[in-house]
Design brief:
Length: 215
């Protein structure tokens, strides 16, 4: 009796499943197809992304080779092209190389490139802060006081970033170069309120304060 009941239950369950399948097979096939298509698209995306990274890496190395051989024009062209691919890693490396090698002398152009990176890429917080600092450093000789303070505001108001101390030193040096020693002292002294900085940052502030006191 029990065995017959179990067989009957099993047949009934299979019958219900078959009935459900028959009435929903179009939906099931459609859903399965969509999942498969999405899986293929996702894998193609990852594959293309990896190929793009490899291509950018090769182009970056090629630009450095051109630099070493003295072909600066070709190097600059490649590095600019990389910047506008909006890859957070290689676009940043390319801009830093342009700056460090003094390949572009026009501050406006370099500033625009920094702005392009900041507006068109997703960076870690500290990478974004580094770009903000470098852009301000680049323009520190051209900005007036309000422009420089505004450009460094994201760093000055952020106690978590390591670039706050660099921003304070930049402002101290800026005002010292202008002969505004009272303002310079204010920013140098703020360095000592920040804990666990590299000794060079504290030493820089001390040296500058000593110079001011001896004037």
């Amino acid at each position: 009796m029990t065995e017959n009941f179990e067989v009957q239950y099993d047949i009934t369950k299979k019958s219900k499943f078959k009935k459900f399948y028959e009435s929903n097979k179009v939906l099931i096939y459609s859903f399965t197809s969509i999942i498969l298509i999405l899986f293929i698209i996702f894998n193609l995306y990852l594959d293309n992304k990896e190929k793009k990274k490899i291509s950018l890496s090769e182009n970056y190395v090629e630009a450095k080779i051109y630099l070493e051989s003295g072909n600066k024009d070709e190097a600059i062209k490649i590095l600019k092209d990389i910047i506008f691919t909006n890859d957070p890693t290689y676009s940043s490396l390319s801009l830093f190389l342009l700056v460090n090698q003094n390949l572009i002398n026009e501050n406006k152009e370099l500033s625009d490139l920094f702005e392009h990176l900041l507006n068109n890429n997703t960076f870690t917080d500290e990478m974004r802060n580094l770009l903000i600092y470098k852009k301000a450093l680049l323009n520190s000789d051209l900005f007036d006081e309000s422009e420089l303070l505004e450009s460094l505001k994201p760093l000055l108001t952020n106690d978590e970033t390591v670039w706050k101390a660099h921003a304070l030193l930049l402002l101290g040096d800026y005002f010292m170069s202008k002969g505004e020693n009272i303002k310079a002292i204010e920013f140098y002294q703020k360095i000592f309120d920040i804990k666990n900085l590299h000794a060079d940052l504290y030493n820089h502030a001390r040296v500058q304060l000593t110079i001011i006191s001896n004037e």
